[in-house]
Amino acid sequence: MLPRIAQHATRAAARAAPRSIIARGMATEKQIFNQIQSTKNIQKITSSMKMVSAAKLKGDEARRETAISFNTWADALNGPPKECEDATFEELPQKSLIVTLQSDKGLCGGINSFITKSVKNCVASLHKQGKEADIAIIGDKGRGQLRRFYPELIQVSMTEVVSPGNFTMASALASELIAAGAGDYDAVVLMYNSFKNAATYTQMYKVIKPFKGEGEDEPLLAYEFEPDTKSEVLTDLQEYLLTSQIYHSFMDGAAAEQGSRMTAMENASKNAGELIDSLTLKYNRARQARITTELIEIISGASALED
After folding, report:
1. What pLDDT does 22 receive?
2. Cβ 141 vs Cβ 161: under 8 Å
3. For 27-39, how does the pLDDT look when each residue is reduced to its tens digit (9 = 90+)?
């Protein structure tokens, strides 16, 4: 008795298997319709995010222009920023602290990945030259990426930095870096995204060296200081210089982030539209096939009744 039951069960399973495979392999009209509706909802979200980023970009561009004018004096002390692409980093001293300015949020293209790539190139180049490098991170996305590659080099990470920033926020970030030991390094290297236009941006870095030296290397020899005050003045100036450079870099990076997010959401909306067209075509074909099958069944049934 049991062998017969097993044989019947095996045959039933064999007959049901092709049907289940077909059911899993071909989407029904309802499933395709639900996919179309979900994609339309996503397209609405990405279109809204694009408009929001476009509105924010105008404000970020204005703040960036203000920061550029405010930070002009720093170029006389540190020199202009340099591009990370194809950089050898040979001018960096023996021990450097690399500070990355990245984002807390995603959906903004590759701005965080490009900075991470620049940091990897910089660290590899410095180690090849026999130099040391540590990392300080501003931005949650940067922390998530860099801790996979250099967890032992990360000295401090700062997240939930609200954008748009201001000089007070930059001062707080500079204080955190100084408290983490930024003054113990031969140079602080700021890496950030520099805004070009809404579609393009480049990775730049600034080298901020401490005001140290004796004799001909003594800093600010062209200026006169009151007795026993130069050391204190240079310490305050170093902190102010770091704050000013962070302020400019953060404003530049915020504009690049909004431009990249606007472009990314525009591309996402375009891709969603193409997917909706493809799914609509598939839905119409499935609907046409169902109607054709029903008509064939009706005609076959009528023919059978006539016979």
Report:
1. 40
2. no
3. 788 999 999 999 9
For residue 242, give Cα distances in angstroms to 31, 77, 245, 249.
Answer: 57, 11, 5, 10
Residue pLDDT, tens place only, 36-75: 999 999 999 999 999 999 999 999 999 999 999 999 999 8
CB atoms within 10 A of CB 49: 19
What totals of helices (H) and strands (E) does the chain contain, helices first?
7, 6
| Cβ atoms within 10 Å, residue 233 | 14
Closest CA to 30 of 283, 293, 281, 295: 283
Q: Edge-to-edge strand order for the sheet containing 132-138?
A: 82-83, 201-208, 187-195, 95-101, 132-138, 154-158
Please determine, for residue 265, whether its predicted confidence score (pLDDT) is greater than 70: yes
Q: What is the DSSP string of 184-207?
A: GSSEEEEEEEEE-SSS-EEEEEEE
Q: Is the dihedral of CA 139, 241, 118, 200 positive or negative?
A: positive
- According to DSSP, the residues that pair with 201 across neighbouring strands are 195
Residues 204, 82 contacting (CB under 8 angstroms): yes
C-alpha span between 205 and 126 (Å, rounded): 15
* CB atoms inside a 10 Å sphere around CB 184: 11
- Average of pLDDT values for 233-237? 87
User: What's the angle, vertex CA 172, arms to CA 166 and CA 177, rounded to 5?
Assistant: 125
- Kindly tell me if the per-residue pLDDT of 236 is higher than 80: yes
**Signed CA dihedral, 212, 85, 204, 81: sign only:** positive
Q: For residue range 163-185, list pLDDT tens digits in order.
A: 778 899 999 999 999 998 888 89
**Token pair of 199 as six digits:** 């579609």
Q: How far apart are the first and last CA of the chain?
A: 44
